[in-house]
């Protein structure tokens, strides 16, 4: 039986206004779960998906709506974020045969002796042991470093590197209990032990979200080229892709000091530093946009199409060609799941902007929309 779209909108509005009854909330939850399972590909853990989507429903439907076009797109994004396409695709966009599946948990672990281990193919359980460190893989895309029970006073030496390809992501639990989420096309170089020395230092290429264990006597330092982020214990995101041309550090909790050459700034929660052309600046930002990827979302707020497509290319492992260079400056705002096929995002941008997408092989060509 077709869904009454107006009725669903009324439930969304009641949810926003906090006037929905428990029965209406459950009806809305059941509706979007069913549509999510039918219309999108999500992580295997259904409990995680459902709870994450439920927690974000309220803030997605209360997004600022600055103008008519953004208003329409925000409404469409609400539907997309909960896995639905009711009434959105009135005309075909990216063809099904040209569609691309989203990224997934995949990475390579490089041990201290240079041995490569595919975390994509390795079975869950212990996959390596180096000195007094046990390295295991969980069944949920997580690499865990654990000090063995017979640890002596000699610290483990050497480094490991975790590398995600385009279309990959992975989570790492460091020897000190700190957690790192690696985005697509990124790498993290880490010591086997933080026991030796007065600091905990890792090296990042690409993007990662950090939840650092609190050890005041041993600051945690993230190096990205000549850029350093120093913390004691906090939650933050570092985006340092070489082709972005800048490095952004976004703080969720705690306090961090960002240093680049002779420049240094201290961030408070809700602030973001940006290093570009040796200039280090600080601004207040919507922190949810910076970490949306970690929670399984694309979240763009009036972002340049060129920047959006860089993120899309990394996650879906595709190439992007602008046939009209001026379109790089087009801006879009959208919130969609990262676990749907690429057509979900491309079709909504086609219907709300002045662009059209053509797929050939694994390349997406972007051109101006032709008059109807």
Automatic annotation (TrEMBL):
<dbReference type="InterPro" id="IPR032508">
    <property type="entry name" value="FecR_C"/>
</dbReference>
<keyword id="KW-1133">Transmembrane helix</keyword>
<keyword id="KW-0812">Transmembrane</keyword>
<feature type="transmembrane region" description="Helical">
    <location>
        <begin position="72"/>
        <end position="90"/>
    </location>
</feature>
<protein>
    <submittedName>
        <fullName>FecR domain-containing protein</fullName>
    </submittedName>
</protein>
<dbReference type="Pfam" id="PF04773">
    <property type="entry name" value="FecR"/>
</dbReference>
<keyword id="KW-0472">Membrane</keyword>
<dbReference type="InterPro" id="IPR012373">
    <property type="entry name" value="Ferrdict_sens_TM"/>
</dbReference>
<dbReference type="InterPro" id="IPR006860">
    <property type="entry name" value="FecR"/>
</dbReference>
<feature type="domain" description="FecR protein">
    <location>
        <begin position="161"/>
        <end position="257"/>
    </location>
</feature>
<feature type="domain" description="Protein FecR C-terminal">
    <location>
        <begin position="297"/>
        <end position="366"/>
    </location>
</feature>
<dbReference type="Pfam" id="PF16344">
    <property type="entry name" value="FecR_C"/>
</dbReference>
<dbReference type="GO" id="GO:0016989">
    <property type="term" value="F:sigma factor antagonist activity"/>
</dbReference>
